[in-house]
Write a structure and sequence with these properties.
The protein is an all-alpha fold. Helix content is 83%, strand content 0%. α1 runs antiparallel to α4 and α3 packs antiparallel against α4.
């Protein structure tokens, strides 16, 4: 596995590391919210509680993987690309959900809002990775 070397400057490495940490923290926070409050959120969002719960559950190993990638020194390029690809898949899945499922206005705002936030994180991770390479 190719690694991003520290010889390219710790500032560039630090930026990518911090973005991945933020991604991991928000991933775990959203996982906790969806897992614990799925039944409460289902009505206002117009989404099935099971979909919310299992989406939340899926975020725990994803967030843990992000933490693992962020703690490696140097950050493995393949790991960073996996984080970016996973975020892109989440965004595409969220858009597909919004297009394919009827939900409340709040549900659309929730799904598309978190998709937009995920897209921003993926973009920042891409920028950070490119700054190093």
């Amino acid at each position: 596995m190719t690694a991003i070397t520290a010889s390219h400057g710790s500032d560039r490495q630090t930026f990518l590391r911090r973005v991945i940490y933020v991604d991991a923290i928000t991933c775990l926070a959203m996982g906790a919210l969806l897992t614990q409050d799925a039944a409460f959120l289902a009505g206002p969002l117009g989404l099935p509680a099971a979909l919310l719960k299992w989406s939340g559950v899926s975020l725990f190993p994803i967030g843990a993987f992000m933490f693992l990638v962020a703690t490696r020194k140097p950050i493995p390029a393949l790991g960073a690309w996996a984080v970016i690809a996973g975020n892109a898949a989440w965004v595409l899945g969220s858009v597909a959900l919004a297009l394919g499922m009827s939900m409340t206005g709040l549900g659309y705002a929730f799904v598309l809002g978190q998709a937009a936030a995920t897209a921003v994180l993926a973009d920042l991770e891409y920028v950070g990775l490119k700054r190093i390479a």
